[in-house]
Amino acid sequence: MSRNPLSTSFAGLKLRNPTALASGILGYTAESLQRVVEGGAGAVVTKSVGAAPRMGYANPTVVQANCGLVNAMGLPNPGIDEFVEEIAHAKIILQAPLIVSVFGYSAEEYALVAEKAVAAGAEALELNVSCPHVKQTGSEIGQNPRILAEVVAKVKGAVQVPVIVKLSPNVTDMAETARVAVKAGADALTAINTVKAMAIDVDTTLPVLSNTRGGLSGPAIKPIALRCVYDLYETVETPIIGCGGITTWKDAVEFFLAGAIAVQVGTAVALENPNVFHAINRGVKAYLKKKGYGSVKEIVGIAHRA
Amino acid sequence: MHTALNTLRTTPILSVKTESPTVKTYTLKDKLCAKAKPGQFLMLWIPGVDEIPLSVMYAENDRVSVTVKAVGDATRHLHSMKPGETVGVRGPFGNCFTEASGKILMVGGGTGTAPLLFLARRLATKAQRLSFVVGAKTKTELLFLKELNAVCTEQGVITTTEDGTYGLQCLVTEPLGKLLAATKFDMVYTCGPELMVSKIFNLTEQHGISFEASLERLMRCGIGLCGSCVIGKYRVCRDGPVFNAAQLSEVKSELGISKLGFDGERIPV
What we know:
- The complex is a heterodimer.
- By secondary structure, chain A is α/β, with parallel strands linked by helices.
- In chain A, about 35% of the residues lie in helices and about 20% in strands.
- Chain A has helices at about 30-40, 80-95, 105-120, 140, 145-160, 175-185, 220-235, 250-260, 265-270, 275-290, and strands at about 10, 15, 20, 45, 60-65, 70, 100, 125-130, 165, 190, 195-200, 200, 205, 215, 240-245, 260-265.
- Chain A has an 8-stranded parallel beta barrel with strand order 3-4-7-8-9-10-15-16, surrounded by 8 helices. A 4-stranded antiparallel sheet of chain A has the order 5-6-14-11, with no helix packed on it. Chain A has a two-stranded antiparallel sheet with strand order 1-2.
- The model of chain A has no long low-confidence stretch (mean pLDDT about 95).
- Chain B is an alpha/beta fold.
- Chain B folds into 2 domains: about 5-95, Translation factors (Elongation Factor Tu (Ef-tu), domain 3, Beta Barrel); about 100-270, Nucleotide-binding domain of ferredoxin-NADP reductase (FNR) module (Rossmann fold).
- Helices cover about 20% and strands about 35% of the residues of chain B.
- Chain B has helices at about 75-80, 115-125, 145-150, 175-180, 195-205, 245-250, and strands at about 10-20, 25-30, 40-45, 50-60, 65-70, 85-95, 105-110, 130-135, 155-160, 170, 185-190, 210-215, 230, 235, 240-245, 260, 265-269.
- Chain B is globular, with a radius of gyration of 18 Å.
- The mean pLDDT of chain B is about 95.
- Chains A and B meet through helix 1, strand 5 and helix 9 of A and strand 4, strand 6 and strand 14 of B.
């Protein structure tokens, strides 16, 4: 029996607490991931890495919106052959599970990057099949059930570590996508990636993001993400990681009650700071004590009892 | 101001001043950025072109000034813009220099002189001695000589040019050994190319002098989200851009050596 009420586990991963850094935030270097672990994160997810380097889009890549951010970074990454060094370094210094986010333009490419990431030390993978602003990958993969199934199956066949699939809310029926991912072998699901969005400046009459379209994150999308997690909990038995606008302990608890086994935090690292994980964990712990629960695992999905 | 509320706003360019053949100063109307402290930066959106970080050179009333060298597409485009044209602004972001007293030395390389001039103006009345070493490649690129002479202690401005067309013919770091040995400064501030910063940091460490440097790295979001500007565990945009000696000694393996490129790869500085 664990005495730490915050410790949790899913898909074979053991976390000292149920918070993780979401993909895309910091996450290029081992030291910046370590900073987030010092800030209290129970696990970290790296920036999405592909087979070849990508420069990403020109600025503006981030626009502040009411209650959130709209971003279109364009998946900047050094490519897996360069990134393996960072993974290996992170594996040595991190005191928390290292989850590497992977993207590709084909099932073969996802599998190739996944294999290299695991060989370098990734303890789990998160498949980015939900980035809303890069063509021919991300959500274009996740929106097509046939290709999604192929990607998940191919990666599962290539590696021995847990494979998490990060889902897009930009689909007609997320339950369908989730079922496809689970049937193809997904060990866990992350819900959700950003919600397709944009910003226009009225003075210049121009779209602000250089890519025109981006994805909305932050408090604005929390109720959307919460509903997605609630629905998925009733759809699949696979562990669900909640993600979308989580900033406070109360947000996190809402996601646990909806059915999330853990939560990812991204935008709050910028809107607050990297110590936001500590603040969330302290609040969750106090909530559990006040409510008489011995473990965070006891509250997962209990909102469904009603 | 909370980051979430510091949204992009557009504003006209009020005035443009030519500082050198390659450097211009832009003054904008912006109430938030007018409250910037020396060392802080803003994100300037050149509509339809790019958005770039710029150190604040001056801020007063409801106006803010930034000094820009034409080095790439974005800055060249900005140099073609005239008063009355519209730009976007976010900020001010980042931390600021601590305002020391006593004997102060500032070392400015290129447009790195701009935020130091802002600081020098603030410290001029407090400092017991204010000295400034300012360097450039050639005479016509030396920035703010008149302004620096007006705020520094008499004979306090030392100029260097790499081609010897004005002042001492050497790098801006050259006169520092002698200066630091002759005077026990209470604080050294610098801003400029990272190799220069790293050299000066080593010198101040040898002399046991307090030191603060404003760093520049490739920046995208400006609010501590994207990780493009990290040095060690620090985000230059959010934990910096001003770092003290203790912080810089934590990132020695990167300072003046490597940074992240646009694709996140570690590349030489």
